[in-house]
Amino acid sequence: MGKKQIAVLTSGGDAPGMNAAVRSVVRTALTSGMGVFGVHRGYNGLLNCDVEEMNLRSVSDIIHNGGTILYTARSPEFNSPEGVQKAAENCRKLGIEGLIVIGGDGSFRGARDLTQAGIPCIGVPGTIDNDIACSEYTIGYDTAMNTAMEMVDRLRDTTESHDRCSVVEVMGRRCGDIALNTGIAVGAMAILVPEQPYDFERDIYQRMQYTQRIGKRHFIIVVAEGAGCHVEELAKEIEKHTGIETRATILGHVQRGGSPSLRDRVVATQMGYHAVKLLLDGESNRVVAMRNGLIVDFDITEALEMLRRFDTELYRIAMKVSI
After folding, report:
1. Is residue 322 part of a domain?
2. What pLDDT shows up at residue 1?
3. Judgement on whether residues 59 and 171 belong to the same structural domain of the protein
4. pLDDT reported for residue 2
């Protein structure tokens, strides 16, 4: 009987550290006596049999690179039952006996569907938003926060020089973790996130007017993209209510790029290793996660039903020290 063959793909939005995870999967599998295929462009690669056989040198010199060498894409076709069956049939044709999926919640739903179609799958959380409920940390999160912090630090120079207010939108459609931590790190006067109610009059205009009276002359406001307000409109309203020149900046996809931080490289390596070991042990339909600093795993369905907890205590601290 031939050696066990597995595959790895990256799906959904790219995140710094995905390459480190791919490297870990490939090398752990190969040194464990398994064969490994790299699937290009997410689930589309399974539908189109767009795969390559990987060796130890296939993943040389990628641990420090952002993006993903396997590329990533959305796949509407795969979201149908017919698409899932076609992907499963292609896996069988290629001899793929297990699949590791690096991505977010949507990617894990696909992994669950593919497991039910007969292909054992393991999910690895790779998304800058840190919005996977079962895991306290996701690959790419640390790098994205540090990128946002660096960009806001640069904005601060011109904001301070002109006695302005800068309203900065960071990523986080359903999750305010990037905004909260970046806001604290840059000394933002206000932080708006989807998890916490806010009032413009109380939380922004009055705070700005109060801090002006005690000597503050420039202001940073950090807004998560999912907080429910448009930063350009908010900037206009702030200027109208306070008389302070206000500019809006949307950081956008710059937060997804760049060389991954040390933490993202290390966690990606740990998670990739754990995912391969699960397949070696005959496990499937699992999501790798971090809990209390340890690498663990959960059933995918259980993981998808978990509710994410926002750190309200850290938010309270941020508001206390931001005056």
Report:
1. no
2. 44
3. no
4. 66
Domain membership of residue 281 as a residue range: 5-140+260-305
Mean local confidence (pLDDT), 273-299: 98
318 in a domain, yes or no? no
Output the six-digit token pair for 319.
């508001």
Is residue 122 scored above 80 in pLDDT?
Answer: yes
Average pLDDT rounded to a whole number, residues 256-277: 98
Q: Give the model confidence (pLDDT) of 38-63 as tens digits.
A: 999 999 999 999 999 999 999 999 99
Same domain (yes/no): 77, 17: yes
User: How much is the average pLDDT of 217-232?
Assistant: 96
**Is 314 inside any structural domain?**
no
Does residue 89 carry a pLDDT above 90?
A: yes
Mean pLDDT (whole number) for 289-312:
97
Residue 249: give its domain's CATH number. 3.40.50.460
Contacts of 53 (CB under 8 A, 6+ apart): 35, 36, 37, 38
Active-site residue flag, 50: no
| Burial classification of residue 210, based on how many CB atoms lie within 10 Å of its CB (0-12 exposed, 13-18 middle, 19 or more buried) | exposed
With b for 16 or more beta-carbon neighbours within 10 A and e for fewer, the 268-307 pattern comes to: bbbbbbbbbbbbbeeebbbbbbbeeeebebbebeebbeee
**Contact between 166 and 220 (Cβ < 8 Å):** yes
Q: State whether 105 and 22 are in the same domain.
A: yes
Task: Name the binding residues for ADP.
Answer: 23-27, 156, 213, 216-218
Question: Do 82 and 92 have their domain in common?
Answer: yes
Please indicate, yes or no, if residue 52 is contained in any of the structural domains.
Answer: yes
Annotated binding-site residues read 13, 23-27, 74-75, 104-107, 127-129, 156, 164, 171-173, 213, 216-218, 225, 247, 253-256
